[in-house]
């Protein structure tokens, strides 16, 4: 854990040092310890701090939510994107833009939380139909179906309104740029509450991983455990998606990587996912800034470019992603 925190600290330091304007680590440390308002390099460093902090928060939220969703669904392919939570948050943001004229990140939060919650409830309700209940396969299928349906509805709304499309397309790609301390202060309470709830669910997720019957036999209230963990996941996904847009692969890749050295114990998987997921998001953001200067590639695109090959390698090496 100390090594993981050290890697995260180095990633954060690199995030404020690298960009369209390259700065030395000495300049970065000088700006952080003895800031001079008249120094242009110091001003650049300070302007990158909110972006780094947001990457830290959003990455941790997505990684933690992905690990918890895999435990709740007993499905190693579960993540906020595959189970439709991100699609629900994005669809409700589109409705907020189209129907209520919402155009600020602060306004996106409540719509994203409502959409994420509704999507989670719908997926679990549909998957619970039938004698077997919410099996991992049915949860994945219900999530995929809901994501496809909401994407179609979202496209219909965007096609009918050019103004909505213009506002939404910058948010949809997933980016850490253009967000300030106002966005961070708005999402921190939701992320903090979601993180506390989810981190405390490690023992419950260990029980759920044994199967519902075994968990009940051990005295665990399966429905309550799933409900409380789902609440934490909704808070994490909704707030993170509202702040940075729908970003995939972070919540899918990192828990698999963490399991390679923690084993199946969620009391370790959850905190390690919280610490290491921001590393992936911040590194992806740095690469996106350096790839096409003076422009940049949105971090949502870069996480897919980086995460997809890594996930394929993990699946082929560990054989963990099987239903």
Automatic annotation (TrEMBL):
The keyword Aminoacyl-tRNA synthetase does not apply. GO terms for biological process: siderophore-iron import into cell. It is found in: Cell membrane. It comes from the Bacteria. It is a multi-pass membrane protein. It holds the Pfam family FecCD. Keywords: Cell membrane, Membrane, Signal, Transmembrane, Transmembrane helix, Transport. Belongs to the binding-protein-dependent transport system permease family. FecCD subfamily. This is Iron chelate uptake ABC transporter family permease subunit.
């Amino acid at each position: 854990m100390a090594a993981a925190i050290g890697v995260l600290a180095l990633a954060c330091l690199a995030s404020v040092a690298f960009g369209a304007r390259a700065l030395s680590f000495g300049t970065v440390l000088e700006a952080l310890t003895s800031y001079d308002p008249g120094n242009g390099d110091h001003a650049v460093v300070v302007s990158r701090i909110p972006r780094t902090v947001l990457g830290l928060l959003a990455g941790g939220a997505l990684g933690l939510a992905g690990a918890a969703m895999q435990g709740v669904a007993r499905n190693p392919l579960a993540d906020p994107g595959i189970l439709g939570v991100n699609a629900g948050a994005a669809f409700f943001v589109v409705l907020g833009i189209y129907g209520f004229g919402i155009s600020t990140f602060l306004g996106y939060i409540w719509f994203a939380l409502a959409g994420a919650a509704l999507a989670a409830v719908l997926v679990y309700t549909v998957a619970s139909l039938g004698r077997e209940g919410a099996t991992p396969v049915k949860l994945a299928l219900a999530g995929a179906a809901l994501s496809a349906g909401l994407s179609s509805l979202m496209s219909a709304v965007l096609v009918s309104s050019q103004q909505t499309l213009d506002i939404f397309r910058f948010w949809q790609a997933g980016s850490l740029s253009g967000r300030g301390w106002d966005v961070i202060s708005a999402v921190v309470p939701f992320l903090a509450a979601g993180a506390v709830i989810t981190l405390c669910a490690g023992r419950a997720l260990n029980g759920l991983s044994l199967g519902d019957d075994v968990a009940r036999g051990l005295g665990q209230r399966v429905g309550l455990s799933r409900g409380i963990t789902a609440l934490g996941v909704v808070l994490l996904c909704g707030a993170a998606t509202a702040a940075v847009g729908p970003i995939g692969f972070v919540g899918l890749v990192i828990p698999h990587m963490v399991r390679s050295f923690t084993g199946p114990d969620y009391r370790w998987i959850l905190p390690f996912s919280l610490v290491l997921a921001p590393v992936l998001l911040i590194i992806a953001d740095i690469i996106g800034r350096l790839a096409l200067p003076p422009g940049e590639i949105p971090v949502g695109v870069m996480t897919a470019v980086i995460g997809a090959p890594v996930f394929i390698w993990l699946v082929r090496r560990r054989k963990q992603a099987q239903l």
